[in-house]
Design goal:
69 residues; 0% strand; mainly alpha; 3 helices
């Protein structure tokens, strides 16, 4: 039961990170949510990584770089 709870919490955290990354992409690229999701998915597939890994990289990069405009 504890393992299932841990897995559910991890999945929820990954989903939140993906949502944050989509929001960053939407803002920076002036695109809608489906386009942001498609970008994440395409990058994950082309680099053979999980979407949550790509999303974490985007969130981290945004935190470090912030608004550079």
């Amino acid at each position: 039961l504890q393992r299932e709870l841990d897995e559910a919490e991890n999945a929820l955290a990954e989903r939140a990170t993906i949502d944050r990354a989509k929001a960053i992409l939407m803002k920076r690229r002036a695109i809608d949510e489906p386009a942001a999701y498609a970008l994440l998915r395409k990058q994950a597939m082309s680099t053979n990584r999980r979407m949550s890994e790509i999303a974490e990289a985007i969130v981290t990069s945004d935190a470090l770089l912030g608004d550079i405009e």
